[in-house]
Every structure is written in structure tokens, then in C-alpha cells.
Amino acid sequence: MSIFKIAGICGSLRKDSFNKKLLIRAQQLCFEHINGATIEIIDWSQLPIYNQVLKYNFSIPGPLKNAIDWASRVAIGDRGQVFAGKAVAIIGSSPSFRPGAAGSGRAQFDLRKSLACLDMVTVNKPLIAIPDVGHAFNEDGSLINKHIESSIIKLLQNLVKLGKQLKVDPE
């Protein structure tokens, strides 16, 4: 059986990023609960800035948009769009703890629009958007709220299912 490979890209470059911590936890949960799938966390921190226009307030983090912009460019002689027809799942968090905090939900909405323009297919449910993320983790990196961990596992299952449905033979 072939392994379904998931590329994990964190929208933050900050050393102690909670989103990076969340991605690492998703990687661990995938290893423990999703047979035939693995998450490789991509380090894109050394990419030069492609576009100086940064939008962080309720939108796509500039460094993440930069990585997408770079990866979406096809060199002369390469074949097609690298993202077209690929399945993608989005998880995110926010440090905000005020009532009604969306936990990255608005940024995820904007990201979904950009990914749709690249012909990617987004897993819609469950939505993983964690507010007050500074209080979301145990010392060992696991999430305090086990419902969130269960939701991440379900999201990963849905991603693998969708990815296999969209899969074309690799070259």
C-alpha cells in the first residue's frame, strides 16, 4: 500500500509559533490514527519575499501567501500548475481570547479563496480554528481539549479520503 503524503505548511515563521505547535500535533495525530498517511512539515523559512504587500489582520499571513505565490509559479518547461487538483485541509489558531474570537476562521476563509483560484479542493469540515491558543496545549504538546484533537483526526481522515478520490497516477 502506498503512503498518502501530506505537506504541512505553517503560516507563521515565529520560533515558538502556536500554529507550528498545532501542526506538529496534527502530524503526531496523523501518525497515531491515520493508517497509510504521513505529514511532512515543510520548512519554507528561507524563501525570499515575493510580494511586499502583507495582510495579517483577519487575512492570510504574508509569509504564507509568499510561500504559496512562490510555489504556484511554474518555471518554463515545467508541467502545469503544481497545486491543481490537490486536496488541502486548513487548521489554525489565534491568541485572541475575547468573546466571539474566531481563532483564525476569517483568515481561513481568505485562504480558501486563494486556494480555489489555484484549483485546489479544500476539505470543508470540520473547521479547526482555535481561539485563545496560548492556553490550548498541555506541557507535552497535546491539546487540552480532546474534542479538538478528535476534530483534527476527523479532518485528516477527510483529507486522505478526498486526496485519494482526486489522486492521479504520479509520474
From TrEMBL:
Gene Ontology molecular function: any one: FMN binding
Taxonomic superkingdom: Eukaryota
Domain NADPH-dependent FMN reductase-like: from-to ranges: 5-52, 56-131
SUPFAM superfamilies: Flavoproteins
GO cellular component, one term: cytosol
PANTHER family xrefs: CHROMATE REDUCTASE, NAD(P)H-DEPENDENT FMN REDUCTASE LOT6
Protein name: NADPH-dependent FMN reductase-like domain-containing protein
Species name: Rhizophagus clarus
